[in-house]
Amino acid sequence: MASTNGITVRSATKDDLPAIVQLEETAFGMRTEQSDRELGPEVFPVERALVAVDGDQIVGHTVDRTMTLTVPGEQTVQASGVSGVVVAPTHRRRGILRTLYTEMHQRTEDEGLPLTIFTASEGTIYGRFGYAPTMVENEVEIDRRRAEFRPGTPDPGGVRMATIDEAKNHLYEVYDRWRRIVPGGQEQPEAKWKKRFADPERHRRGATSLFVLTHPDGYVLYRRQWRDEESAVIVVEFRAVTPEAHIALWRVLLSLDLAHTVEATLADNDPLPYLMTDPRLVRVKGRWDSLWMRLMDVPAALTARTYRTDLDVVLSVDDPFRNAGGTFALRVRDGIAECEPTTRPAELELGIDVLAGLYFGTHRARAFAAANRIQAKEAAALRAFDEAFTTERDAELGWFF
Ligand SMILES: CC(C)(COP(=O)(O)OP(=O)(O)OC[C@H]1O[C@@H](n2cnc3c(N)ncnc32)[C@H](O)[C@@H]1OP(=O)(O)O)[C@@H](O)C(=O)NCCC(=O)NCCS
Q1: Given this structure, which CATH class describes domain 3-113?
Q2: CA-to-CA distance for 86 and 65, rounded, in angstroms?
Q3: Separation of alpha carbons 76 and 212, rounded Å
């Protein structure tokens, strides 16, 4: 395999696992729990890992797994989900990440997967590899004692308390329904559920183990973090397949006594603020970019999702990392796209990272154009392109990796 400056990149084996754990712990600055060590390789099999080796030392690592990912229009596509990207602090800035990424993306290309996805530790690193953030998470805090539902808000009920053991099958079933309709939802492997249920001390950060509330069309996993006599409710996972489930679960969360606040993560268009007499109480404390994406095959990726409006446009796409760029004609009729290379002159020019930023409809083409990252010959072409990529539902990440 690839070899530069005395560093060799090769496939990992089971024997490498202790050295990989040591490298990840050092690079991410955290200790792993027993359950993470046992279940981690079941989620991301070591056979899919690449390691960079200097003599007898492992100094770099990356791994992926093929994920079934929902994209706009309730369609699914196979994507490479990348994780555990680390280079030893003793070996930084010598091109090891670039070498690992080159090998990994070559394999993804050979396997014919149209998208690669991951969550990024820093915002400045991955644009050069054709990636862009593609969804938004709002970290909100609600003053529970002042929260009131607007008069006339339904009270659908149907929420039950449950233990993890009692709720397991319900969680699997609801999650699976949820991820099929939400862009960004991935099929969830059994080992990932086991990791969640193991609920090790490190994941709790001083809060309690998980509490569960179920509804026929939803569920919530949450913790309580005690400070003196009162607590904060920390929502770890909230899934609602219907608006009724959303209201019913929020009604119970906001009626948890002895809690001054409820903390949760919401997509931009979550209906919660509109249910409140005082929408300001849903206070945004932070915004996070969540999932990053790269298009490996522009026609395959663009035809995998659906579109809001008809479109005829020629795009010139620049790929600074691989050879996925080129000039493409994108034609949409009744939501369904056709896309193929063309020799016609381009109407819009953009980087492949910008196309990834637009893919889930979270970020708008008109904003990228205003930032000089889309060049449009005609304002009308930009308007049509901007409109067509909007979506009916906000993208949300199914499970973090
Ligand atoms: C981030 C990390 C993997 C980079 O590894 P590395 O081997 O030093 O990276 P490389 O030398 O191959 O750099 C590749 C490119 O990214 C750039 N880059 C790397 N780290 C960067 C950073 N922190 N900020 C900005 N740019 C960075 C380099 O300048 C280089 O650019 P170029 O190839 O266009 O000249 C490594 O620093 C690390 O393990 N950090 C801690 C764990 C972590 O954050 N992992 C990422 C999880 S998503």
Answers
A1: alpha beta
A2: 16
A3: 29
3-113 and 137-288: same fold? Answer: yes
For atom 3 of ligand 1, which residue has the closest CA? Answer: 86
Q: Both tokens of residue 113?
A: 């997967």
- Collapsing DSSP to helix, strand or coil, 305 comes out as coil
CA neighbor of 56 nearest in space, from 94, 28, 18? 18
Active-site residue flag, 126 = yes
**Number of alpha helices (DSSP H) and beta strands (DSSP E) in the chain:** 12, 20
Pocket of ligand 1 (CB under 6 A): 27-28, 85-87, 92-98, 120-122, 124-125, 128
Strand, helix or coil for residue 287: strand
Atom of ligand 1 nearest to the CA of 92: 8
Per-residue pLDDT at 83 exceeds 90: yes
- The neighbouring-strand residues paired with 51 are 10, 61
Q: Where are the domains of the chain?
A: 3-113, 137-288, 297-388
What separation in Å is there between the alpha carbon of 123 and the centre of ligand 1? Answer: 11
Of the candidates 232, 230, 233, 255, the residue with the CA atom closest to the CA atom of residue 159: 255
137-288 folds as Aminopeptidase (3.40.630)
The pLDDT confidence band at residue 383, using thresholds 50, 70 and 90, is very high
- Residue 149 falls in the annotated catalytic set: no
Give CATH for domain 297-388.
3.30.1050.10
Q: What angle do CA 5, 48, 53 make, to 5 degrees?
A: 25
CA 224 to chain centre: 25
For 184-226, what is each residue's pLDDT tens digit?
Answer: 999 999 999 999 999 998 889 999 999 999 999 999 999 999 9
